[in-house]
Amino acid sequence: RKRRMPGRWETVHTSNDPDGREEGGSFTWRGRLCLLGGRGVLPVECLEPRSWRWETHSAHTHDLHHVQPVEYQGQFWVVSGWVGAWPAEQQIKETVLYDPGAQRLSRGCPIPDGHRRGAAGAIMW
């Protein structure tokens, strides 16, 4: 293996490809890069860096897009985003939680009307 250079982009060739997606989100979990959401019905997929193979999780999102998951207490939360197809997209009304260990999506708490947005850059501080 060649030495990784911090702060530099490089092309990585994987042994398989993830599902094509647009306007989904990503997060890191246990050293893996994971993809969540996008337009259409899509599985959560995580890249295993030791094998450079994409692993497909059993959970699927349904037209959940413009999202940025953020980790809190072992789950990844989506606190804003859209559902549906253009031009009738709607803001999500409840948070979406993903538990990667259990490979389970669930609904969280309601998002107050005045705080619903089409997308967000979310961080945990």
Summary keywords:
125 residues, mainly beta, Lipocalin, 10 strands
E-strand count: 10
* Main sheet summary: 6 strands, antiparallel
Strand content: over 45%
Strand order of the largest sheet: 1-2-3-4-7-8
Overall pLDDT, averaged?
Answer: 92
Number of domains: 1
Q: What is the overall shape? A: globular
Q: What name does the CATH topology carry?
A: Lipocalin
List unreliable stretches of 5+ residues.
Answer: none
CATH class category name: Mainly Beta
Give the helices and strands as they follow along the chain: EEEEEEEEEE
In DSSP terms (H or I, runs of 4 or more residues), the helix count works out at 0
Q: What is the CATH architecture term?
A: Beta Barrel
Please give the alpha-carbon distance between the first and last residues: 36 Å
Whole-angstrom Rg: 15 Å
Helix percentage = under 10%
Region (Disordered): 1-25
InterPro entries: Kelch-typ_b-propeller
Compose a concise summary of this entry.
This protein is mainly beta.
Structure overview:
It is a single chain. The N and C termini lie far apart (36 Å). The protein has strands spanning 25-29, 32-36, 38-48, 53-65, 70-72, 75-78, 82-83, 90-91, 94-99, 104-110. It has 125 residues and is an all-beta fold. The mean pLDDT is 92. The chain has no helices and 10 strands. It is globular, with a radius of gyration of 15 Å. The protein has a 6-stranded antiparallel β-sheet with strand order 1-2-3-4-7-8, with no helix packed on it. Strands 5-6-9-10 form a 4-stranded antiparallel β-sheet, with no helix packed on it. The protein is 0% helix and 46% strand. Residues 1-25 are annotated as: Disordered. InterPro entries: Kelch-typ_b-propeller.
